[in-house]
Amino acid sequence: MNILLTAAGSLGDIAPYTGLGARLRTAGHDVTVATHDTYAPLIRAAGLTFRPLPADPRATDPADAATPTTRRALLRRAAAFIEQLGDGMADAATPDTELLLLSTTTAPLGWHLAEALDIPSVGAYLQPTAPTRAFAPVVGGGRSLGGWGNRATGHLSLRVVDRLHADAVRALRTRLDLPPATPRATRRRAEAANWPVLHGFSELLVPRPADWRPGLTLTGHWWPHLAPDAQLPAELDDFLTSGPPPIAIGFGSMSTTDAERLSTLAVRALRRAGTRGILLAGNANLTAPSPSDDILTLSTPVPHALLFPRLAAAVHHCGAGTAAAALRAGIPSVPVPFTGDQPFWAARLASLGAATPALPFTTLTEKLPLDDAVTRLATALTQATTPALRTRAQSAAHHLTTEDGPTTALHTLTHHLAP
After folding, report:
1. Quick one: 234-400 is in which CATH superfamily?
2. If one looks up domain 2-221+403-417 in CATH, what number appears?
3. Can you tell me whether residue 206 is helix, strand or coil?
4. pLDDT for residue 63
C-alpha cells in the first residue's frame, strides 16, 4: 500500500514518525512522509521517501523570533502557519496515494484531501485531542478542571481549532473542487463515523479515558528511528566517562530572547547543586560563559536514545518526545514548560513520580529575579537526583520496554483497513 504520512511542526512533532514509518516499511508498505525541508535528511535516513511541506512554524513570523508563550501569540502564529500549509498538503498527494496518515496538526486539512481523493485516512496523533472528563485539553495548562469542566473545555478547544482552520479549509476545498463545508461540520462527521486515530504514546502516561468514543487507540510510543551504528560525538563520550553522570539542560526547538540570562541561570544552578552538566544549545542558544571541566556545551543535536541513559537527570521543556525519551531512559526530569502541550506532559511525568514539579519558563525568566531563579532551579536539580525519583523513573522505563508502539499501530491499522 502507498501510504502518505503528513506531519508538521518542530523536530519533536516529526521524529516519532520515522520510527512508525520504518515499521510500516518493513511490513511491505511504501511510506512517504510529507513535512518541512529541514527534516528531509531525518526522513531519508529512516529509509522513507520525503516530500516537502511549506510553512516551517519556526519561520512563519520573522518579527516574532522567540517561542510564543502567551495564548494570543500562539494562536496568531498557528493561524499564519495553517494558511500556508493547505496548498502544500494538496501538492504532497499523488494519484497513487492509497492511504493518508494524518498528524494532529495536519488532520483538519487532510480530511478534505482524503475526501477529494476518495481514499481512507487514519489519524496518527502524538497528543490526545478528544474531549474527556479524565483531563483538561492538552493546551489548557495541565490542570484538571473537574469532570464537567475538562470535557467542556475540551469541546471548546476543538472549536478554536475549527476557527483557526476556517480560511485555509475554504481555500483548500475550492482548489480541490469540493462543495463548501465548514471545519466543524467535517470534524463532527469524522467523529460520528468513529474515524480511527492511533495515538503514539503509552497508557502509562495517559490511561485511555473511559468516555472516549470507539476508534481511538493508544499504541505506545513511536520512538524515532536510530541507525544501528549511531554513536555520540567523541567529545561528549569523553565527558560522560570522565566523571559522575551529569544533568543535561536543554529546551530543544524552544527559543528565547535572552539566551545570556538563561545560560547564566543554568550554569549557576548546576554549580550550586554541585553536579556536572551538559548544556544542549538548541534554539535557546545555551552556552557556558567559559570552558570548564564540569560543564560541557553541546552545539550539535544528538539522539536522546544515546545520551539520556547516561545522565543523572534532564532539565527540558517537556515536549511530548523529550518527556517520553527521559522516561524511556529511566531518568528523572525537571520540566520547564514553555507553551502548548508542554505543561500537560510535565504534569503527567510528575504524576508518575518521575519528575519534579514543573518550573514554568516564564517563572524562571520573567517573574523571578535571577538569584531567586537560580535557587529554584538548583533546588529542583537536587530533588531530581534523589533515589526516590530515579527509582520511579526506572520503574516507568521498565514498563515501556513491554510496549511496541509501531507494531501495535501496524496491527491496528491493518484491522481498520480490512474489507
Report:
1. Glycogen Phosphorylase B; (3.40.50.2000)
2. 3.40.50.2000
3. coil
4. 38
Sheet containing 49-52: which strands, arranged edge to edge? 49-52, 30-35, 2-6, 99-102, 121-125, 197-199, 216-218
Query: What DSSP string runs through 311-350?
Result: -SEEEE---HHHHHHHHHHT--EEE---STTHHHHHHHHH
Tell me the domain boundaries of the chain.
2-221+403-417, 234-400
Q: Supply the pLDDT for residue 175.
A: 94
CA distances from 306 to 46, 223, 232, 320 (A): 17, 12, 7, 18
CB contact burial 379-403 (16+ within 10 A = b; e otherwise): bbbbbbbeeebbebbeebbeebeeb
Residue 216 gets which letter from DSSP?
A: E
The C-alpha cell 551538559 sits at 278
Q: Tell me the pLDDT of the chain averaged across its residues.
A: 92
Host H or E run for residue 217 = strand 216-218
**Percent of the chain residues past pLDDT 70, beyond the cut:** 95
pLDDT for 64 equals: 43
Please calculate the CA angle 283-318-280 and round it to the nearest 5 degrees. 35
pTM: 0.92
Find how far residue 100's CA is from the centre of its chain.
Answer: 20
What is the C-alpha to C-alpha distance for residues 407 and 217, in angstroms, rounded to an integer?
Answer: 13
Instruction: Give the integer Cα–Cα distance in Å for 39 and 41.
Output: 6
Q: What single DSSP character describes residue 309?
A: G
